[in-house]
Each structure stands twice: as structure tokens, then as C-alpha cells.
Amino acid sequence: MNKQAYRYLVFSTCLFLLIPYCMRAQPLIDLSLETADQQLEVRLLPQATFQGLVSNVQFTLRWNDAELHALSISQPPLEAQYIPMQPAGQSWSDGTFVYQTFVGFGLLPMDTVGVQWQAGQEVVLMRLQVPSLSPTYELVRAEAVQPKNGAFYVELNGQVATGQFRNIQAGGQTALGDRLGQTVSFGLIFPNPGKQTFFLPVESQSVQHIQVGLYNQNGQKVYFSDWKIHPGRHQLQLRFPTLPAGVYHLFLITQDEQMYNQNIMIF
Questions:
Q1: Domain boundary residue, one of 153, 173, 193
Q2: Which of 6, 27, 30, 136 is the most exposed place for a label (fewest CB within 10 A)?
Q3: CB-based contacts of 264: which residues, under 8 Å, 6+ apart?
Q4: What span, in angstroms and rounded, lies between the C-alpha atoms of 104 and 55?
Q5: Domain of 56: which CATH number?
Q6: Would you say 26 and 50 are in contact if contact means Cβ atoms under 8 Å apart?
Q7: Is the separation of the CB atoms in 143 and 259 below 8 Å?
């Protein structure tokens, strides 16, 4: 068999193995930053069972220690096989913070290494060895790193599966992240799938301005609104009467930089 025929055979075999995974609906994957044994852990939280191909994971961390320019990372052995992670280039500084984007690309379906994610069970994606937990370490919202292409992003079987941040902060004494989980809480948008009108439950402890953006699968913003809410429970009514059917990514951010992400389906 010549080289060209061999390459074609390998490519065809890989394509044959991956097609069944790519045809299934993919669960959303949330992201969390936690402290464990004086280390930082980046954890994924799948919203449904999954054992296919983790095509891409990307996120950005920042910390307020200008003397610390790089973080040493490690991964659990199995995760290192199906989604190896690494820094995406050098860190950069902006004001009092240092930023670092991390990225991983999967080549093996999870079931080939005997792994299956379970709905609602956290998965440790990677660990970061830090010299101290005194600085504040935070997962970064999309707008702050968009010029660097470092926004939180998950792709499963070649399809977008980006969920939301669960806990964005670790370390520090009076950290921004401590406020983010307390000021505003969001429920699940409903009905989802829906036709034109959706409702998002919101509970706020203070007066807040909330910006709502909706993006298509090409990353284009197709809707934007700005809300002012008062303390208490509310339901934001979101109407998309002119949008074609499809899957869209909803992104909200409060004045305190709390974020909410969810995919919605319009039919």
C-alpha cells in the first residue's frame, strides 16, 4: 500500500469513528475555579452524560500579583489523554492584573480511554500550582479578553457546548469573585426550546443594570438589551420575533461583572 492510500485509509477510519459522536445533541458544560490542597483546580460540570470527543476547551485566568507571570499546570492522567491543556502563548498584564489563557484540543473520544462524564458531577480538568493563595485568582468574563481571543469556550463533538461560570474566584481576602455569587442569581431560561418569547428568572439583592446579548453560531451579536432591576425576584422577558430557527448563545453581565451563559434553541 502506498503512502497516499495509507493516509486516506487512516483519515477515513478516523472520520468513520467520529461521525456518530458529532450527530448527537451535546450537553452544556459549566466552568468553575476552586481551591484544593493549597492548589487551584479548574473543574468542568456537564449538564448531561457525555463520553464523546471534547473538541476544544478554552478559558482565561487573571490574578493580582504582578510578580507572578506564569502558573505551573498539571492534569489528571485520563484528562491529559483526551483533552490535554496548555497555556496559549505568554501571559499579559493590564492594570493591576496578569492574564493567562489556557486552551486544549481533543484528539481521542473519551470512551477510547474508558471515561464517561455524568450529569451534575464535577470533573477536574487541570490543577495549577501557585506559590500563594494570597492573590485573587479569577476566571475572566468574555469582554475583557475578546481582543486576545481568550473567552470561555467549550466544544463537544465539533459543536458549541459553552455553559456558564459556577464559581469564578479563588484565593484573596476581599475578592471581586466573593461579590459575584451574592449580588444576582439567575435561573434557567424557559421555555427552551422556544419560539419567540423566553423568560429568565432573576433574583437581585441590589439595584442592578444587566446587559443581555444573544449571539448566533458564527459569533455575531444578533440581539442586545439593557435592563435595570431592583432588589427582589423578577422574570426578564426576552423576545426574538425576527430571528431564524437555530441554536443561539445567550450572554448576560451585571454592573458587578457577574456573568451568565446559556444556549437557547429557537424553532
A1: 173
A2: 6
A3: 189, 192, 193, 194, 198, 214, 247, 248, 250
A4: 8
A5: 2.60.40
A6: yes
A7: no
What does the DSSP 8-state code read for residue 66? T
Question: Can you give the pLDDT at residue 1?
Answer: 58
Cell of 247: 441554536
* Sign of the dihedral through C-alpha 81, 60, 35, 135: positive
SS3 179: helix
Of 122, 146, 173, the one marking the end of a domain is 173
Give yes or no for a contact between 165 and 257, defined as CB atoms under 8 angstroms apart. no
pTM: 0.58
Rounded Cα distance between 54 and 157, Å, is 6
Closest CA to 233 of 185, 191, 189: 185
- Predicted pLDDT of residue 78: 95
State the DSSP H helix or E strand holding residue 82, giving kind and residue range, or none if neither.
helix 77-82
For residue range 12-43, list pLDDT tens digits in order. Answer: 444 444 444 444 567 889 898 888 887 899 99
